[in-house]
Specification:
Layout lengths: L2 H10 L8 H6 L3 H31 L2 H26 L4 H26 L3 H7 L26 H31 L1 H33 L8 H28 L10 H27 L5 H9 L1
Helix pairs in contact: 3-4, 3-10, 4-5, 4-10, 5-7, 5-9, 7-8, 8-9, 9-10
Protein backbone atom coordinates (compact mmCIF):
# COMPACT_ATOMS: atom_id res chain seq x y z
CA UNK A 1 0.00 0.00 0.00
CA UNK A 2 1.48 3.37 -1.00
CA UNK A 3 1.45 6.50 1.17
CA UNK A 4 -1.47 8.19 -0.61
CA UNK A 5 -3.64 5.10 -0.17
CA UNK A 6 -2.73 4.88 3.51
CA UNK A 7 -3.63 8.55 4.05
CA UNK A 8 -6.95 8.07 2.22
CA UNK A 9 -7.81 5.02 4.32
CA UNK A 10 -6.94 6.89 7.52
CA UNK A 11 -9.11 9.86 6.60
CA UNK A 12 -11.99 7.58 5.65
CA UNK A 13 -11.96 5.76 8.98
CA UNK A 14 -14.15 7.08 11.78
CA UNK A 15 -15.47 5.38 14.90
CA UNK A 16 -18.99 5.05 13.48
CA UNK A 17 -17.99 4.12 9.91
CA UNK A 18 -19.54 0.83 8.72
CA UNK A 19 -17.92 -1.01 5.78
CA UNK A 20 -19.81 -2.66 2.95
CA UNK A 21 -20.02 -6.43 2.58
CA UNK A 22 -17.21 -6.48 -0.01
CA UNK A 23 -14.97 -4.27 2.14
CA UNK A 24 -15.70 -6.43 5.18
CA UNK A 25 -14.80 -9.65 3.35
CA UNK A 26 -11.72 -8.09 1.76
CA UNK A 27 -10.37 -6.77 5.08
CA UNK A 28 -11.24 -9.87 7.11
CA UNK A 29 -8.57 -11.01 9.55
CA UNK A 30 -8.23 -14.44 11.27
CA UNK A 31 -9.78 -12.89 14.38
CA UNK A 32 -12.82 -11.69 12.41
CA UNK A 33 -13.09 -15.08 10.72
CA UNK A 34 -13.21 -16.69 14.15
CA UNK A 35 -15.91 -14.31 15.36
CA UNK A 36 -17.98 -14.85 12.20
CA UNK A 37 -17.61 -18.63 12.48
CA UNK A 38 -18.68 -18.43 16.14
CA UNK A 39 -21.77 -16.48 15.12
CA UNK A 40 -22.58 -19.10 12.48
CA UNK A 41 -22.23 -21.96 14.97
CA UNK A 42 -24.53 -20.21 17.47
CA UNK A 43 -27.12 -19.53 14.77
CA UNK A 44 -27.07 -23.18 13.68
CA UNK A 45 -27.35 -24.25 17.33
CA UNK A 46 -30.52 -22.19 17.75
CA UNK A 47 -32.03 -23.71 14.60
CA UNK A 48 -31.07 -27.21 15.70
CA UNK A 49 -32.69 -26.77 19.12
CA UNK A 50 -35.94 -25.62 17.55
CA UNK A 51 -36.18 -28.32 14.87
CA UNK A 52 -35.22 -31.08 17.29
CA UNK A 53 -38.12 -30.06 19.53
CA UNK A 54 -40.57 -29.30 16.72
CA UNK A 55 -42.01 -32.83 16.59
CA UNK A 56 -42.37 -32.89 20.38
CA UNK A 57 -44.26 -29.61 20.36
CA UNK A 58 -46.56 -30.76 17.55
CA UNK A 59 -47.20 -34.10 19.29
CA UNK A 60 -47.75 -32.71 22.80
CA UNK A 61 -49.46 -29.36 22.26
CA UNK A 62 -53.28 -29.21 21.84
CA UNK A 63 -54.30 -27.98 18.38
CA UNK A 64 -56.01 -24.92 19.87
CA UNK A 65 -52.63 -23.59 21.07
CA UNK A 66 -50.28 -25.12 18.50
CA UNK A 67 -49.87 -22.30 15.95
CA UNK A 68 -49.17 -19.59 18.53
CA UNK A 69 -46.90 -21.91 20.53
CA UNK A 70 -44.75 -22.67 17.47
CA UNK A 71 -44.56 -18.97 16.64
CA UNK A 72 -43.54 -17.93 20.16
CA UNK A 73 -40.90 -20.68 20.29
CA UNK A 74 -39.66 -19.65 16.84
CA UNK A 75 -39.00 -15.97 17.58
CA UNK A 76 -35.50 -16.81 18.82
CA UNK A 77 -34.55 -18.34 15.49
CA UNK A 78 -35.73 -15.24 13.61
CA UNK A 79 -33.79 -12.93 15.94
CA UNK A 80 -30.73 -15.20 15.58
CA UNK A 81 -30.99 -15.08 11.79
CA UNK A 82 -31.20 -11.27 11.88
CA UNK A 83 -28.17 -11.09 14.20
CA UNK A 84 -26.07 -13.40 12.00
CA UNK A 85 -26.97 -11.52 8.81
CA UNK A 86 -25.96 -8.23 10.46
CA UNK A 87 -22.53 -9.78 11.15
CA UNK A 88 -22.09 -10.84 7.52
CA UNK A 89 -23.52 -7.61 6.06
CA UNK A 90 -22.62 -4.81 8.52
CA UNK A 91 -24.59 -2.11 6.71
CA UNK A 92 -27.78 -4.19 7.04
CA UNK A 93 -27.76 -3.75 10.82
CA UNK A 94 -30.74 -1.36 10.88
CA UNK A 95 -32.79 -3.61 8.58
CA UNK A 96 -31.93 -6.69 10.66
CA UNK A 97 -32.76 -4.84 13.87
CA UNK A 98 -36.11 -3.85 12.34
CA UNK A 99 -36.89 -7.47 11.44
CA UNK A 100 -36.06 -8.63 14.98
CA UNK A 101 -37.97 -5.76 16.59
CA UNK A 102 -41.13 -6.18 14.50
CA UNK A 103 -41.06 -9.95 15.04
CA UNK A 104 -41.04 -9.29 18.77
CA UNK A 105 -43.85 -6.74 18.35
CA UNK A 106 -45.99 -9.25 16.46
CA UNK A 107 -45.32 -11.95 19.06
CA UNK A 108 -46.45 -9.74 21.96
CA UNK A 109 -50.00 -9.77 20.63
CA UNK A 110 -49.82 -13.49 19.95
CA UNK A 111 -48.76 -14.03 23.56
CA UNK A 112 -51.83 -12.36 25.06
CA UNK A 113 -54.06 -14.19 22.57
CA UNK A 114 -52.48 -17.47 23.70
CA UNK A 115 -53.09 -16.60 27.35
CA UNK A 116 -56.75 -15.86 26.59
CA UNK A 117 -56.98 -19.18 24.70
CA UNK A 118 -55.57 -20.96 27.76
CA UNK A 119 -58.46 -19.53 29.78
CA UNK A 120 -61.04 -20.72 27.25
CA UNK A 121 -61.84 -17.20 26.10
CA UNK A 122 -62.49 -13.85 27.72
CA UNK A 123 -66.00 -14.72 28.93
CA UNK A 124 -64.82 -17.91 30.63
CA UNK A 125 -61.99 -16.13 32.43
CA UNK A 126 -64.29 -13.34 33.63
CA UNK A 127 -66.51 -15.97 35.27
CA UNK A 128 -63.53 -17.61 37.02
CA UNK A 129 -61.56 -14.50 38.03
CA UNK A 130 -61.50 -12.94 41.48
CA UNK A 131 -63.26 -9.65 42.09
CA UNK A 132 -59.93 -7.82 42.46
CA UNK A 133 -57.97 -9.59 39.69
CA UNK A 134 -57.76 -6.57 37.38
CA UNK A 135 -55.46 -3.71 38.35
CA UNK A 136 -53.90 -0.84 36.42
CA UNK A 137 -51.34 -0.33 39.18
CA UNK A 138 -48.63 -2.32 37.44
CA UNK A 139 -45.19 -1.28 36.15
CA UNK A 140 -44.20 0.87 34.39
CA UNK A 141 -47.28 3.05 34.99
CA UNK A 142 -48.07 2.05 38.58
CA UNK A 143 -47.39 5.54 39.94
CA UNK A 144 -49.79 7.17 37.46
CA UNK A 145 -52.66 4.93 38.58
CA UNK A 146 -52.04 4.81 42.34
CA UNK A 147 -55.53 6.17 43.05
CA UNK A 148 -57.27 3.38 41.10
CA UNK A 149 -58.29 0.28 43.04
CA UNK A 150 -58.29 -3.30 41.71
CA UNK A 151 -61.55 -4.50 40.22
CA UNK A 152 -63.24 -7.37 38.44
CA UNK A 153 -62.15 -8.15 34.84
CA UNK A 154 -64.65 -7.36 32.10
CA UNK A 155 -64.87 -7.21 28.32
CA UNK A 156 -63.71 -3.58 28.45
CA UNK A 157 -60.70 -4.73 30.47
CA UNK A 158 -59.59 -7.05 27.69
CA UNK A 159 -60.30 -4.37 25.09
CA UNK A 160 -57.96 -2.00 26.94
CA UNK A 161 -55.24 -4.65 27.16
CA UNK A 162 -55.59 -5.58 23.50
CA UNK A 163 -55.36 -1.91 22.53
CA UNK A 164 -52.21 -1.34 24.63
CA UNK A 165 -50.52 -4.37 23.08
CA UNK A 166 -51.83 -4.07 19.52
CA UNK A 167 -50.62 -0.46 19.18
CA UNK A 168 -47.06 -1.75 19.55
CA UNK A 169 -46.65 -3.62 16.23
CA UNK A 170 -48.59 -0.91 14.38
CA UNK A 171 -46.71 2.10 15.80
CA UNK A 172 -43.30 0.41 15.74
CA UNK A 173 -43.89 -0.83 12.19
CA UNK A 174 -44.62 2.69 10.91
CA UNK A 175 -41.69 4.22 12.81
CA UNK A 176 -39.06 1.63 11.90
CA UNK A 177 -40.06 1.34 8.24
CA UNK A 178 -39.82 5.12 7.86
CA UNK A 179 -36.43 5.08 9.64
CA UNK A 180 -35.17 2.47 7.19
CA UNK A 181 -36.30 4.61 4.27
CA UNK A 182 -34.46 7.61 5.75
CA UNK A 183 -31.33 5.54 6.33
CA UNK A 184 -31.27 4.30 2.73
CA UNK A 185 -31.96 7.77 1.35
CA UNK A 186 -29.59 9.76 3.56
CA UNK A 187 -27.79 8.21 6.55
CA UNK A 188 -26.79 11.64 7.91
CA UNK A 189 -30.42 12.76 7.89
CA UNK A 190 -31.32 9.51 9.66
CA UNK A 191 -28.84 10.28 12.46
CA UNK A 192 -30.37 13.73 12.96
CA UNK A 193 -34.01 12.63 12.79
CA UNK A 194 -33.68 9.51 14.97
CA UNK A 195 -33.68 11.53 18.20
CA UNK A 196 -37.13 12.90 17.30
CA UNK A 197 -38.42 9.35 16.79
CA UNK A 198 -37.05 8.13 20.11
CA UNK A 199 -39.85 9.52 22.39
CA UNK A 200 -42.52 7.81 20.26
CA UNK A 201 -40.58 4.51 20.24
CA UNK A 202 -40.06 4.58 24.02
CA UNK A 203 -43.67 5.58 24.76
CA UNK A 204 -44.98 2.73 22.60
CA UNK A 205 -42.66 0.25 24.36
CA UNK A 206 -43.78 1.43 27.81
CA UNK A 207 -47.44 1.04 26.84
CA UNK A 208 -46.99 -2.52 25.57
CA UNK A 209 -45.04 -3.51 28.70
CA UNK A 210 -47.85 -2.01 30.80
CA UNK A 211 -50.49 -3.98 28.91
CA UNK A 212 -48.52 -7.23 29.19
CA UNK A 213 -47.92 -6.73 32.90
CA UNK A 214 -51.64 -6.12 33.46
CA UNK A 215 -52.74 -9.34 31.76
CA UNK A 216 -49.97 -11.48 33.28
CA UNK A 217 -50.71 -10.30 36.84
CA UNK A 218 -54.43 -10.73 36.21
CA UNK A 219 -54.30 -14.27 34.76
CA UNK A 220 -51.17 -15.93 36.19
CA UNK A 221 -52.63 -16.71 39.68
CA UNK A 222 -55.50 -18.66 38.08
CA UNK A 223 -53.21 -20.93 36.01
CA UNK A 224 -49.99 -21.59 37.95
CA UNK A 225 -49.37 -24.86 36.07
CA UNK A 226 -49.19 -23.01 32.73
CA UNK A 227 -46.27 -20.81 33.85
CA UNK A 228 -47.62 -17.63 32.27
CA UNK A 229 -45.18 -15.33 34.03
CA UNK A 230 -42.02 -17.18 32.89
CA UNK A 231 -43.41 -17.33 29.35
CA UNK A 232 -43.86 -13.57 29.45
CA UNK A 233 -40.31 -13.03 30.71
CA UNK A 234 -38.89 -15.37 28.06
CA UNK A 235 -40.41 -13.09 25.42
CA UNK A 236 -39.61 -9.80 27.16
CA UNK A 237 -35.92 -10.72 27.40
CA UNK A 238 -35.77 -10.52 23.59
CA UNK A 239 -36.62 -6.82 23.72
CA UNK A 240 -34.18 -6.15 26.55
CA UNK A 241 -31.30 -7.94 24.85
CA UNK A 242 -31.78 -6.51 21.37
CA UNK A 243 -32.28 -2.91 22.56
CA UNK A 244 -30.24 -2.43 25.73
CA UNK A 245 -27.06 -4.24 24.69
CA UNK A 246 -26.43 -2.23 21.48
CA UNK A 247 -26.81 0.93 23.55
CA UNK A 248 -24.22 -0.32 26.04
CA UNK A 249 -21.94 -1.17 23.12
CA UNK A 250 -22.26 2.37 21.75
CA UNK A 251 -21.29 3.83 25.13
CA UNK A 252 -18.22 1.58 25.32
CA UNK A 253 -17.12 2.47 21.80
CA UNK A 254 -17.60 6.18 22.49
CA UNK A 255 -15.45 6.10 25.65
CA UNK A 256 -12.61 3.83 24.52
CA UNK A 257 -9.97 4.87 22.03
CA UNK A 258 -10.00 1.90 19.66
CA UNK A 259 -7.48 1.67 16.79
CA UNK A 260 -9.26 2.52 13.56
CA UNK A 261 -8.15 1.36 10.14
CA UNK A 262 -10.91 1.16 7.57
CA UNK A 263 -12.72 -1.21 7.07
CA UNK A 264 -11.84 -2.53 10.57
CA UNK A 265 -13.60 0.24 12.49
CA UNK A 266 -14.72 0.32 16.15
CA UNK A 267 -18.36 0.28 15.00
CA UNK A 268 -17.72 -2.95 13.08
CA UNK A 269 -16.16 -4.71 16.07
CA UNK A 270 -18.88 -3.40 18.39
CA UNK A 271 -21.60 -4.71 16.10
CA UNK A 272 -20.02 -8.16 15.76
CA UNK A 273 -19.45 -8.60 19.50
CA UNK A 274 -22.96 -7.38 20.40
CA UNK A 275 -24.54 -9.72 17.83
CA UNK A 276 -22.54 -12.70 19.10
CA UNK A 277 -23.73 -11.94 22.64
CA UNK A 278 -27.32 -11.78 21.34
CA UNK A 279 -26.84 -15.09 19.46
CA UNK A 280 -25.56 -16.73 22.65
CA UNK A 281 -28.56 -15.47 24.60
CA UNK A 282 -30.97 -16.67 21.90
CA UNK A 283 -29.55 -20.19 22.28
CA UNK A 284 -30.24 -20.05 26.03
CA UNK A 285 -33.73 -18.60 25.56
CA UNK A 286 -34.53 -21.17 22.89
CA UNK A 287 -33.73 -24.01 25.30
CA UNK A 288 -35.76 -22.33 28.05
CA UNK A 289 -38.79 -21.76 25.82
CA UNK A 290 -38.89 -25.42 24.79
CA UNK A 291 -39.20 -26.35 28.49
CA UNK A 292 -41.76 -23.64 29.25
CA UNK A 293 -44.11 -24.59 26.41
CA UNK A 294 -44.30 -28.25 27.39
CA UNK A 295 -47.41 -27.15 29.28
CA UNK A 296 -50.22 -27.36 28.56
CA UNK A 297 -49.98 -30.80 26.99
CA UNK A 298 -52.76 -32.92 25.57
CA UNK A 299 -52.56 -35.20 28.61
CA UNK A 300 -52.97 -32.36 31.13
CA UNK A 301 -55.91 -30.96 29.15
CA UNK A 302 -57.66 -34.36 29.29
CA UNK A 303 -57.07 -34.59 33.06
CA UNK A 304 -58.50 -31.09 33.56
CA UNK A 305 -61.60 -31.98 31.54
CA UNK A 306 -62.16 -35.14 33.63
CA UNK A 307 -61.78 -33.23 36.88
Amino acid sequence: MNNSTEIGAFLECTNDAIPSFYEYISGMTPFLMGLTATGGVLFLATLTIYYRNLKKLVRRTPKTFLARTLLLCGIYQIVSAAAFVSILVPRAILLCDTVAHLTFAFCTYQLICLFIDYAGGETNFIKQANTDAFSLRTPPCCCCCCCLHPGRPSKSTFLLIRTLVLQFPIVQGVLFISLNVLFVENDRLYSKVFLYYLPFIITSILLVIWGLNIIVRMMAPNYPQLRLRPKYFALQFVLMMTKIQPGIGNVIVANIDFPCWYPLTPALYKNIIVQIVILTQMVILSVWSQKLYRAPSKNTMKLNELS
